[in-house]
Design a protein that fits this description.
By secondary structure, the protein is α/β, with parallel strands linked by helices. It is built from 19 helices and 18 strands. The radius of gyration is 23 Å and the shape is globular.
Length: 493
């Protein structure tokens, strides 16, 4: 440990964001450049706590606590403080294939379990991680590293989100011939079309894809396995298959007026937005999706925030975000102790921007949507909402409407951001894959093998909707088991 008193001398300082009113004028990343000396200073705050929880990757209270991919955080914090950036990059790549993604979009459960966080604001782990990989690319340290020899084994990876990309990267490192199939027109899955450009610029995704292609991975786009290509044909053409298709079946809101024009799934909106930004599809739809409209976002989480930030950039007339859960407390509640993920109130980038434009946090807590209201042409014109209370009924809490609270708010666009139910059915049904009670493909964690020999499943398709960092964890682990299946042993970490 280089600086035993660092956490006493320096306050927490994350990578600064551009001002909300400035950044909503474009689709560029929201962060400002961060001075290298300040990053080193922040690395000195890592306190050599003896028993670090930041890299444990546990699940506590059904949420991640610590880094799910077990990043060697205290080691690279200390290396950054000492100015040994190249060594820090090597440590970071030992556990994380794509730190340029997690350093931008991960909610950082590592920081929630940082020991310093018990008494002070935690170490800026996420900012330091992002700074390490960005410096690695800028210095030219990140270069293609193709395997020195090939096994001759062929593997198909279906899906190019973080789980699929991680599995492909690891299997390629083991010397196998890897082909990745993606139904969209570009590689990246939700990293590309599900996360807006201001959080993760698409050039950053493409940069990593190009690197993987230079290392020998073959990418096949605009090909949907199960439709354009029979899933069973993969069993004939490849020695093994790793399914990383995600949990892309969105949760619907089947209430009156759901069929009205203007009511969309959040992912439809975000996908059209990025496609328009990349000038791949209907740019007109991109430009007018929320412009001059009263927008209602139903649901919270990252996807809800992304809809808020995107609508503000479109120039919406107003923005309202409806959340059925209560407003989180300002500080940890007694039943949410460290090192659990802190369930506390915070303003994410989208809410910050909406507050600057419209004068308040757009979120309405303990609010339920009852009905979509349309005009004579079948267009959405409003939403009927009400306040709710959570009450115990039949042994479980249920939302109960507060009498007299029903009201109508204007809306010409409504985006459903209520999460996902599980994977789509096409591939699972064609191959006869076993499913669990939540419709996910059944494959034991740690083994990842399905009921069909030679087929493995990982990521959201196996565990349900989760974090990018969990997807990377599963992609790496499934690659290890696939390698073991093909070769009888494995040296993959």
């Amino acid at each position: 440990m280089g600086k035993p008193t660092g956490f006493l001398e320096h306050e927490r300082q994350s990578i600064p964001d551009r001002s909300p009113l400035e950044r909503i004028k474009d689709w560029k990343e929201i962060h400002e450049p961060f001075d290298e000396d300040k990053v080193r200073q922040q690395g000195s705050r890592c306190m050599d706590c003896g028993t670090p929880y930041c890299h444990t990757g546990m699940t506590l209270a059904n949420m991640a606590s610590g880094c799910p991919i077990n990043n060697l955080i205290p080691e690279w914090n200390d290396l950054v403080y000492k100015g040994k950036w190249r060594d820090a990059l090597d440590r970071l790549h030992k556990t994380n294939n794509f730190p340029e993604f997690t350093g931008r979009v991960c909610p950082a459960p590592c920081e929630g379990s940082c020991v310093l966080g018990v008494i002070e604001p935690p170490v800026t782990i996420k900012s330091i991680e992002c700074s390490i990989i960005d410096k690695g690319f800028s210095e030219g340290w990140v270069t293609p590293q193709p395997p020195t020899q090939r096994s001759g084994k062929k593997i198909a990876v279906v899906g190019s989100g973080p789980a699929g990309m991680a599995a492909a990267d690891q299997l390629n490192k083991a010397g196998h011939l890897v082909t990745v199939y993606e139904r969209a027109d570009r590689i990246g899955g939700l990293l590309l079309y599900g996360i807006p450009n201001m959080k993760l610029e698409k050039e950053i995704v493409q940069r990593r894809v190009d690197l993987m292609a230079a290392e020998g991975i073959k990418f096949v786009v605009s090909t949907e396995v199960g439709k354009d290509l029979p899933a069973k044909s993969l069993l004939e053409d490849f020695d093994s298959v790793v399914l990383c298709c995600g949990a892309t079946k969105p949760r619907d809101l089947p209430i009156e007026g759901r069929e009205l024009k203007g009511v969309h799934y959040a992912m439809e909106f975000l996908t059209i937005n990025t496609q328009g930004l990349l000038e791949l599809k209907d740019v007109t739809a991109f430009e007018t999706a929320a412009n001059s409209k009263d927008v209602v976002v139903i649901g919270g989480g990252d996807t809800g925030t992304d809809c808020v930030g995107t609508s503000v950039r479109h120039g919406c007339k107003s923005i309202t975000q409806l959340e059925i859960m209560p407003r989180p407390p300002e500080e940890r509640a007694d039943d949410n102790p460290w090192p659990e993920w802190p369930k506390v109130y915070k303003m994410d980038y989208g809410q910050e921007e909406a507050k600057e434009v419209f004068g308040k946090d757009p979120r309405n807590y303990l609010t339920m949507t009852k009905k979509f209201i349309g005009d004579d042409q079948g267009n959405l014109k409003g939403v009927t909402i009400c306040d709710i209370e959570w009450k115990m009924e039949d042994g479980r809490y249920s939302p109960v409407e507060v009498q007299g609270s029903e009201r109508e708010i204007p809306a010409q666009a409504a985006f459903l951001a209520m999460g996902f139910l599980g994977p789509e059915d096409t591939i699972a049904e064609e191959l006869g894959l076993a499913r669990d009670s939540r419709s996910n493909v059944q494959a034991e964690y740690g083994r990842f093998s399905t009921n069909i020999e030679g087929i493995f499943a990982a990521g959201d398709m196996r565990r349900g909707q989760s974090l990018v960092v969990w997807a990377i964890n599963e992609g790496r682990a499934a690659a290890r088991e696939c390698d073991r299946y093909l070769m009888g042993e494995t040296s993959l970490p």
